[in-house]
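Hello again, I could really use a second opinion on something today. I've been staring at a protein lately and its backbone has me curious. You're getting the sequence in one-letter code plus the fold written as tokens. I'd be grateful if you could look everything over and explain what you see. No rush at all, and the record is pasted right below:
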Amino acid sequence: MKLATIKKLCCPYDKSDLTLRVMTKNEYEEILEGVLVCEKCKRIYPIISGIPIMNPDEYRSFELEQPILEKWEKTLEIDFQKNFKLSLEK
């Protein structure tokens, strides 16, 4: 995912701007792993293999997102809630 692409994205839930947290980049400075955070609703959207996973809550699959989120759980201070609204607040 290129940095220029991120500026065009918004939260699918409330259409707010997103903040990027980069975990890994490739040699071309493209983002391979990270998360996009909506500061308004506190939802997070992981970037996996350079692809942002930005489906609305009802279409998200926790099983697919779980490995990457667990990998960065301590760095991001992520709280996995039962209703699948992934939140940075604990």
